[in-house]
Amino acid sequence: METNYVYRNIADDLRAAISIGKYAPDEMIPSENTLAVQYNTSRVTVRKALHILENEGMIRPQHGKGYFVLSPEYNRFEIDFVDKPSGGGSQYLEINVVPADEELAHHLGANAGTMLVVIRRMLFSDGTPSAYDEKFFPYVKGEPLIERELHYAQFPDVFTDKYVPRGIWTNMEIGAVSAPPAVCAALGAQTGEKLLCVSRTVYSSGNQPIGFGRRWYAPEKGILTAVSNRTPETR
Fold it and tell me: Helix 2-19 vs helix 43-55: angle between axes, to the nearest 10 degrees?
């Protein structure tokens, strides 16, 4: 237990030192041997701490030399996007099996007319509609995708029973798009009005599309927040 605290302390101390500029970008941090002596621990414990910072994108190893500080990636942003509303609730509008039109077939790498499971929800904020959410999956007889979607909070979790969780990845697109009439009517927008739309395609490890979802935001409700260069201490 004590060793666990040591490697966390090492990681925390180095992270703080890098954050305040004690170690500048491209500068080498103290060696494993130096840190092992400083914290009176083993190199194995030190290495665990360094791997934490490496995974956070703060340092990189250079063979035969040591670990160097990476420059902050200010052009790379992190956005928190959750399926389960944090407040206001949601209402299911439709759970059905429908044939794919050409657009959906394109997103899912399928043929037009392929049967898809569709799940549509209305999200609310302060008692008023804030977003219209819809998800599509290829329909496979006997696979309880609908039940899994109703159970799990996050979109990709629907597929973790069938695919290796770390093998699933998601592509997101954000833009102002002319919404379909049904979406405009549900969100109180003018027909054809451009609304903020967030679309996501979930892929398996073989880059095969396995799910597609999009969320349309009501006028003046579509605000997304993203940050760059955020460390665990600032989350």
Answer: 50
